[in-house]
Amino acid sequence: MPVYAYVARDEASVETRGTVEGASVPAVLRELKGQGLRIVELSETALPQIPRGVAEADLLAFYRQLAAMVATDTPLVESLRLLAGETPSQTLSEAASSVAVEVEHGVRFSEALSRYPRLFPPTYAALVRSAETTGRLDEVLVRIADHIEQYSTLARRVLITLAYPLFICLLALGLVSFLELFVLPKFAQLFTELGVTEFPVVTQVLLWSRHVAPYFLVGIVPLVLLIILFLRLQRRTAQGRYTQDYRKLRVPLIGPLYHYAALARVSSTLGMLLGSGMGVLESIRLAAGTAGNEAVRLGTRQMEAAVAAGESLEEGMKAAGIFPGFMVARTASAEKGGNLPGAFMELGRYYDHLMDSRARTFTTIIEPVLLVLLGGAILFVVMGVFLPLVQVISQLSS
Length: 398
Fold this sequence. Notes:
By secondary structure, the protein is mostly helical. Among the domains are: about 5-45; about 55-150, Up-down Bundle (Receptor-associated Protein), CATH 1.20.81; about 255-355, Type II secretion system (T2SS), domain F (Receptor-associated Protein), CATH 1.20.81.30. About 75% of the residues lie in helices and about 5% in strands. The chain has 15 helices and three strands. Strands 2-1-3 form a three-stranded antiparallel β-sheet.
């Protein structure tokens, strides 16, 4: 919806400025008059579009420094402008400056943050809105920073775990390709000049694969590109995203990593939101958006619908079918005991630890397998090069 900047006076004739979203000018006028304001000036404005590209480290530092300034009673507008000049991210600097301008004109801090969902997700804006009511803004900002750090660490561990086998496979492919394309042909020419007419089977296979490889690439490269294009197009639909993410959870060895990571995000976010005094339904709705997996996100939204219909969290989790039995049982116990925030924070730590343990297990299993495959591939090429050499030496000796 369009955004309108206004100048108005209240019943005491005190001037106030701000921005408000509305479908049209009459709709905005009705809303402002309903708040007891007399409009002096009203004009449509465009907020700057903030693109992606802010490093998590910059965002983490922004929240921690802002929390420290707020804790020392530094005015919010002054803090935002100071941080806008200090942050190394141009994108974040522009966003902080815009938020400072809006807050200075009477817009609530949480509302100003919500204008930039790519930088300040709805979860964080909702936490700030809750803190504006309780007066614990510095504590909430620290909590948000801790959540960003935990989220970033979790994502980085999953990426490192999956990147290791990919790196080993690419290394093996690169070494074998180098030996086959640049080393083997020179040796084959040398052996031919030395009178070798029949090569060993290993060498024949390598020479054959070298001639066949271009034709294989002509067929395989377009096929791979078509598969990537199909997956990207499928990802654009809700059903496609669900199908891909659900299958991710079922992949042997790797699937549990995605599942535990998503459960850790949802649990820790729920604990943080509930601990800030937010309602259960709103907390579940916001936590669903942090899952990072469409199957887990939809399962969390199903739990929200069940709770909204009057069922307990335990019944909602069972109906969703995506939450493990331990998580359901722990939630049921906490629901009866009245300690949901603590229980969800504990579950977040539990699944974080479980994911870390599974990642180490995956690495322990896959590392020797990959090293054996790498060594076997190199050994095969080396044998293809040196077996004819042994044959030549034998002929010369005889």
